[in-house]
Amino acid sequence: MKKNFLPLLLMLGVIGLRSQTITSVILPQYIEGATSTNANRLPFVFRAKLSGLLPGSTYRFVNQIVISTDAATTAGAGNCIFISSAGDFTRTSSPGIAKTYGSFTTDANGEFTGWFVSEPTGNARFIPGKYVFMRIALNDGSTGTTAVTYLTTSDSVRVVKLDATSSDSTGTGIRSTTPLSAKQFVFLYDNTAGTGRPISGTFIESEGTDNTTANSYASFYATSVNGVSGAFGTVIPNNLTSGVQRVEVRSLSDAAITNSATDADGIWPSGANTVNTLGGTTEVLLDATTDLGFLASAVKNPSNAATTFSLKQNFPNPFNPSTVISYSINGSEHVSLVIYNVLGKEVASLVNEFKSAGTYKIEFNGASLPSGVYFYKLSTAKYTEVKKMTLLK
Fold this sequence. Notes:
About 5% of the residues lie in helices and about 40% in strands. The chain has about 400 residues and is mainly β. The strands form five sheets. Strands 2, 4, 7, 9, 10, 11, 12, 15 and 18 form a nine-stranded mixed β-sheet that branches. The chain has a five-stranded antiparallel β-sheet with strand order 1-3-8-5-6, with no helix packed on it.
């Protein structure tokens, strides 16, 4: 008589096993790295979805970095900065399931989507120009103190070191100090739409970790970013022909886009040039007002700033010799609209008067000016926004 082994197989877990997977949700293309000694560390932020786990279970985890030749159960290298939704983030140089680990709880489907932060070290895996992968090691979803599951991203990340030479293995630091609150995440893109994978990603300080030169962080980060409210710092590759065209801010809780700023050619209104930079450890500075003025506006009036105060891109652009600039204000106040050249010299004042709430258009004639790039700045008592235009004769 043929025996039915189905109940036994189910009991043993042979049938009905879930396929445990990791899916990259936001995975930047570049990470800072150097071997032997790495004294220019910068945080690397990514977002991933873990599936096929036990429903409603709390897992311990560590997230580290591997290369293609590592075994499937090799933990990898790199330090961890564990995310907290309620308190400070936690940095550890000795991550491990049994000692210093992060934790998360899966939903009813056995899934978890969240933020992960890695810190590159001087380990031999971080060879500039090579590729690495993100790996998350998990315990049993209960009280286990050993890793039993290893999930690795299928997409790789390129390692670049901070160095002032033109190479596919070198990069330059970039930073800004904004009015935004800590524990949000910043991603840089090489296109204005924010499509594809970001160039790099980091968090907004001050989130509670000690990212100093004593802990081998890059000097510019330790001095101007670490512990500075609203500051962020990351790396961009030196070979970046498009430059940074979008700065995007996402929330801690659900990764929703809270703010974004764009620049179509990667040379921002302040003059910050992100195209094929060769700064290395001398960072590019994005000015929070001139380049990322939307951030200040959004913080001061987050409920309606994006829809009630706006400065539109001039049309046509490029122009010869006239173009139209449109803007909106949400209250009665004094308004200034000024044109500057690339040296920051005022070349025209289009508006300097009290205006009622509403939408306005004004024509600018550049017949007396030479061809080139110009910036137009709209200012009120509460808001400032800058855009770029090109006069092409």
